[in-house]
Amino acid sequence: MDTPDSARRSLLMAAGLGTLMASPAAALAETLAPQPDETPKYHVRFAVCGMSHDHIHGMIGAMQRGGGELVAAWGLEPDKLAVFAKRYPGVKLVKTQDEILDDPSVQLVLTSHIANERAGIGVRAMKNGKDVLSDKPGVTTLEDLALVRQTIRETGRIYGILYSERLEVKAAVHAGELIKQGAIGKVIQTINIAPHQIYQSGGDAGGSGGRPDWFWNDAQFGGILCDIGSHQIDQFLYYTGSRSAEIVASQVANIRHPDRPHFQDFGDMTLRGDHGFGYVRLDWFTPKGLGTWGDGRLFILGTDGYMEARKYTNVAVSSQGNNLFVVNGDSARYIDCSNGPLPFGPQFIADIVNRTHTAQDQDMALLAAELAITAQKTAKRAVIA
User: Fold this and answer.
1) Residue 38 DSSP SS3
2) pTM of the prediction?
3) Other residues' Cβ atoms within 10 Å of the Cβ of residue 238
4) 135 with 56: CB under 8 angstroms?
5) Which residues of 242-253 are buried (b: 16+ CB within 10 A; e: fewer)?
6) Is 230 in contact with 368 (CB distance < 8 Å)?
7) Are 371 and 247 in contact (CB under 8 A)?
8) Which run of H or of E encompasses 234?
C-alpha cells in the first residue's frame, strides 16, 4: 500500500519532476577555523576624547588588538567616566579636551562624543598632528564634512569612521572575502534591515541605563538616516564596489514617540551607485523578546548567487550571531563565522604607522557620511495615523 509520501513521489515522477526530488542541491554547513593569536606588529599611543556612546569600548578593543596603547581619556558624563575608570584602571583621566589634543605623545584620538561634535574634535586633533577614529556618524552636516575633507588635504592626517556593523562583525567580514573570491558573481544589490532597541539590558551597544537627552535630538544625533543609516550605506558602497552614488528616495517618521518631536524611530532609503543598487530600512522597534539589541540582516544579491548575513542572532533557532548563508550554482551553504578574523584594528594601527589606507578607504568612508547626511536632509517626513 502506498504511503502518502510514496504516492506524492509517484505523482512527481509522472510529471517529470523525479530528478528534482532525487537530486536536491547540496546543503553544506561549516565553521570557520579559530584564528591564531598574533603579536601586534606596531605600537601606537592613543587617547579617548569623548565617550558619550558606549561604542567607545569596541573602538578601544579594536585598537588594542592592533597594538594600540590607551594612555588617557576625557569624557563629559560622570556616569560614563565611572564605568570607564573601572574598566580601564590606571588610564589617566583628564579634565579638558585640550590635555589630550595638545599632548604631542598622543598619536591617535578616538571619539564617541555627542555625534554632532565629533567632527569638530577630529578637525582639532588633525590640526595638532594626530590621526582620528570616530564612532559613526563621523559627521552630521555637510558644512562639517567639507571642513573635515579640507583638513585632511591640509594635514595629510587620517579621519577614520568605525562603521562597526561591517568592520567589527565577523560574518560581514567573511562575506566580503567570499565576494572577492567570486562566490556570487558581480554584486548587484544590497538590502540592509537594521532594527535597533532603545532600552537595553546592558553591553556596549549604547542603550543600557537609558538614553541621554542628546539621543532624542536630531540636531545632535544627526537623525536616523544619518546616524545608524551610515553603517548601512558603508556596506552598500563596499559590497557593490561603488565609488559614486546617489540617494534615489528617503523618508523618516516618528511613530511611537510623539513626546519626542525631534526624534525619528523609522526611516528607509533607496540608493543607486555606479556599480549597484541598495535599499536600507532602519527602526527603533526591536521587542524585548528577541534577546538582543537588533536582528540585523544583510542581503547581498549577485549575478551568480546571493548571501544573507544574520549578524546578531538566528531567531528562534540560536542566540548565536555571525551566521552567513551563501547560495550559488554549486551549493547552499551555512557558515558559522564566530571564529573569523576582525582585521580592522591591526590594519588601522598599521595605516597610522605606514601612512596607508588598508583598513578603510578614506574617500569611501567620507562618501558614506555624505550620502547619509544627504538622505537625512532630503527625507520626506511621513505621518502614519
Assistant:
1) coil
2) 0.91
3) 22
4) yes
5) beebebeebbbb
6) yes
7) yes
8) helix 229-240
| Residue type at position 113 | H
| C-alpha dihedral, 214 to 215 to 218 to 223, nearest 10° | 150
CA dist 50 and 55 (Å) reads 11
Nearest to 275 by CA among 296, 250, 303, 311: 303
> The C-alpha cell of 51 is what?
565617550
**3-state secondary structure (DSSP) of residue 270:** strand
CA distance 47 to 18: 65
> Residues 353, 45: contact at Cβ < 8 Å?
no
Spatial CB neighbours of 23, under 8 Å, sequence gap ≥ 6: none
Long-range contacts of 257-266 (CB under 8 A, 24+ apart): 257/216, 260/216, 262/216, 262/217, 262/218, 262/219, 263/215, 263/216, 263/217, 263/218, 264/218, 264/223, 264/224, 264/225, 265/224, 266/224
| Closest alpha carbon to 271 in 281, 256, 284, 286 | 281
> Do 30 and 333 contact (CB within 8 A), yes or no?
yes
C-beta atoms surrounding 50 within 10 Å: 25
Instruction: Check: CB of residue 363 under 8 Å from CB of residue 158.
Output: no
**How far apart are the C-alpha atoms of 81 and 329, rounded to whole Å?**
53
- Classify the C-alpha dihedral 319-321-326-327 as positive or negative: positive
Per-residue model confidence as pLDDT tens digits over 88-135: 999 999 999 999 999 999 999 999 999 999 999 999 999 999 999 999
Q: For 59-82, what is the mean pLDDT?
A: 97
Set of cell numbers at residue 135: 564612532
Give the position of cell 558602497. Answer: 237
Separation CA 312–CA 323 (nearest Å): 8
**What are the pLDDT digits (tens) for 133-186?**
999 999 999 999 999 999 999 999 999 999 999 999 999 999 999 999 999 999
Cell (9 digits) for 224: 536616523
Separation of CA 286 from chain center:
17
